[in-house]
């Protein structure tokens, strides 16, 4: 019996050993969002970041506890902290200072992202030249172009100065060496995706490389109080390329936007530790450089005070900045079974909704007509407050009757035909009054008593039918002699909308 028991114990010992010596399976965690998985994958299943999943240490296999070290500088009461180092220094470009919150803070790291060819390098070269003329030493590191190409652009935009130093480098160690040698008062790196570190595997622009390069440059900027601007690339969907942690590491994230066929460029901050994130800077990009636009509304108006049929002016809000935009509409007889609905600068789905409300609630017969709606100057109007302007411009084009001269309108159109209030109506009207408009049409309840400008006659409307009746100027003899576009049509308020 003892031999049998020993045999059974010997046979059971390997299984029991396997059970007791079983080691936990390794886990993998995403460095971007913290998502965990039991096996390694190249792309995170939560945030969809590439190359961010790495093996995490198991129980007892983590790094040793960090030893306690003596602080080099003692903690101070918050009232004794020197705030002069945290004050912004103007860059000399007012529109950029508006977005940054007054300028560049010493030691701050700004990430400027935008599509290729939008004008990022031109803007930063102009900013660097202005800082150099102010007596500061500026180091401009270019990794995308040669030094000669940057010199030619600098001559074209008049950005050549002895205090502006240029280096064409793609190695992180060499860039840090230039910083040690020059000791600049401002650093510009164009771009962070072109710099690579020899200590990290992978090509330039990879996730690990971008993270290492950004961390090294941020450490230098914080240690020496150097304001640093990093140029970043964007992906196909317009988001910043690279790991999401890059946006968390920097102090300010700015988006540089603009259409290729338009001279207008917009800079807006999506993250700002030193200022607001609802400001917008407007720039005019031309062959001679980039210029800030303190009054960009003129780019979006063609005949602001002398309208023709099919045009209407509204005021949109870009952040906290009111911008006047002119919306033009053309209604033409269609020979197609499905008439066209074409837009430029206006959301096509909003146009389809406005046309449906016009036809159902007001009685405008637009089913057999092509409708084209566009903005002036390349402006992009996506705010719902422009619905009323789109509706009145379409009605004006359909009736071939201009709106009242000097009038600006704003309001969101609901599916029931009501005009909903908009935010910032007083600020919008102040901008319209400054541009010379004398009439305004706003939703009922948008303004408090005394908020309307003294030089402007403001009309409040409750629904789209009322807005249509009050917007068009009456026909006169000259208007009657003017040829209409297409067959003679009755006035909209005389059209029977059908049985109730």
CATH topology of the largest domain: Rossmann fold
Helix content: 25-40%
Give the CATH H-level superfamily of the largest domain.
Answer: P-loop containing nucleotide triphosphate hydrolases
Strand order of the biggest β-sheet:
6-5-7-8-4-9-10-11-12
Q: Output the CATH class name of the largest domain.
A: Alpha Beta
Radius of gyration: 31 Å
Number of strands: 21
Number of folding domains? Answer: 3
Summarize the main sheet: 9 strands, mixed
State which percent range the strand residues make up. 15-25%
Coarse morphology: elongated
What is the number of helical segments per DSSP (H or I, 4+ residues)?
Answer: 12
Tell me the distance between the termini.
101 Å
Structural class call reads alpha/beta
Low-confidence stretches: 6-21, 476-500
CATH architecture descriptor text of the largest domain: 3-Layer(aba) Sandwich
**Taking all residues together, what is the mean pLDDT?**
85
Keywords:
single chain, 500 residues, alpha/beta, Rossmann fold, Ribosomal Protein S5, domain 2, 3 domains, nine-stranded mixed sheet, four-stranded mixed sheet, 12 helices, 22% strand, disordered C terminus
Descriptive overview:
The structure is a single chain. With 500 residues, the protein is of the alpha/beta class. The protein is built from 12 helices and 21 strands. The strands form 5 sheets. The chain has a 9-stranded mixed beta sheet, sandwiched between helices. Helix 8 packs across helix 9 and helix 9 crosses helix 11. The N and C termini lie far apart (101 Å). Belongs to the RecA family. RadA subfamily. One of its GO terms (biological process) is recombinational repair.
């Amino acid at each position: 019996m003892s031999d049998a028991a020993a045999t059974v114990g010997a046979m059971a010992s390997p299984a029991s050993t396997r059970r007791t010596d079983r080691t936990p399976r390794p886990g993998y965690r995403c460095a971007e969002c913290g998502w965990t998985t039991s096996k390694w994958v190249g792309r995170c299943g939560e945030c969809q970041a590439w190359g961010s999943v790495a093996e995490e240490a198991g129980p007892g296999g983590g790094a040793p506890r960090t030893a306690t070290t003596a602080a080099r500088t003692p903690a101070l009461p918050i009232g004794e902290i020197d705030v002069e180092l945290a004050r912004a220094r103007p860059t000399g470009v007012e529109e950029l200072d508006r977005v940054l919150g007054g300028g560049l803070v010493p030691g701050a790291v700004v990430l400027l992202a935008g599509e290729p060819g939008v004008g990022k390098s031109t803007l930063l070269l102009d900013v660097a030249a202005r800082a150099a003329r102010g007596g500061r030493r500026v180091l401009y590191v270019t990794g995308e172009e040669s030094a000669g190409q940057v010199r030619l652009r600098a001559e074209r935009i008049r950005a050549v100065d002895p205090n502006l130093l240029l280096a064409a480098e793609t190695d992180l160690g060499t860039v840090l060496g230039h910083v040690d040698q020059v000791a600049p008062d401002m650093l510009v790196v164009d771009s962070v995706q072109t710099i690579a570190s020899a200590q990290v595997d992978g090509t330039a622009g990879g996730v690990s490389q971008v993270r290492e390069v950004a961390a090294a440059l941020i450490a230098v900027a914080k240690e020496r109080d150097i304001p640093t601007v990093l140029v970043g690339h964007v992906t196909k969907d317009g988001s910043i390329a690279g790991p999401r942690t890059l946006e968390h590491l920097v102090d300010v994230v700015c988006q540089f936007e603009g259409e290729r066929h338009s001279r207008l460029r917009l800079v807006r901050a999506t993250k700002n530790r030193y200022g607001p994130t609802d400001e917008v800077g407007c720039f005019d990009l031309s062959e001679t450089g980039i210029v800030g636009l303190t009054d960009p509304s003129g780019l979006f108006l063609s005949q602001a005070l002398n309208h023709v049929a099919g045009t209407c002016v509204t005021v949109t809000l870009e952040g906290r900045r009111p911008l006047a935009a002119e919306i033009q509409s053309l209604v033409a007889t269609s020979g197609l079974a499905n008439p066209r609905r074409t837009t430029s600068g206006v959301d096509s789905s909003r146009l389809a909704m406005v046309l449906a409300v016009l036809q159902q609630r007001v009685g405008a017969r637009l089913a057999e007509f092509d409708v084209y709606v566009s903005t002036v100057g390349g402006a992009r109007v996506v705010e719902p407050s422009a619905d009323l302007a789109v509706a009145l411009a379409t009605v004006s084009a359909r009736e071939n009757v201009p709106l009242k001269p000097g009038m600006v309108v704003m309001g969101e159109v609901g599916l029931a035909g009501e005009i909903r209030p908009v935010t910032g109506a007083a600020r919008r009207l102040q901008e319209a009054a400054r541009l010379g408009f004398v009439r305004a049409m706003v939703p009922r309840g948008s303004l408090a008593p005394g908020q309307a400008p003294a030089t402007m006659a403001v009309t409040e409307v409750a629904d789209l039918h009322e807005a249509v009746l009050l917007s068009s100027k009456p026909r006169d003899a000259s208007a009657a002699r003017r040829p209409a576009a297409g067959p003679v049509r009755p006035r909209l308020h005389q059209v029977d909308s059908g049985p109730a």
